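Hi, here's the filled form for the chain we discussed.

Project: internal
Contact: R.S.
Residues: 150
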Amino acid sequence: MKKLNLDIIINASPEKVWDCIIDPVKYRKWASAFMEGCYFEGGWNKGDSIQFLAVNEAGAIEGMVSEIAESTYPQHISIRHIGMISNGVIDMTSDLVKAWAPSYENYTLEKLSDHQTRFVLDMDANEEYYDMFMDMWPRALGLVKEIAEA
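And the returned structure, exactly as it came back:
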């Protein structure tokens, strides 16, 4: 596992950035950086189950099975990824999943002023997906910035 660490300065309050992260409509906009049509089902409070989903080219649901490890409004969200969904089937026990689960994706919102926030992302990534995420996450963070500043 490699650690992905990125950050971006957003000219909006932490509360507004938090809303961009968890609002279902805004989430779809910024998560499009990963795959068009991404959405989530579940909650963003500590202990909540959450699935990050999309429909693939074949029309099947794929994504991640996760839970919220920590949620402190409006400063921090820690997502624990524990499984995956492939062709609509949940997998939490295969060797493929055991190779990386659990892995964490953390969002820290640092208040710089009343109207400026540093969004810090740190995430565990398999070596084979590291470069892909290093391409996608800067675009996703740019979209969060664009949405929050609008």
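Let me know if anything looks off before we file it.
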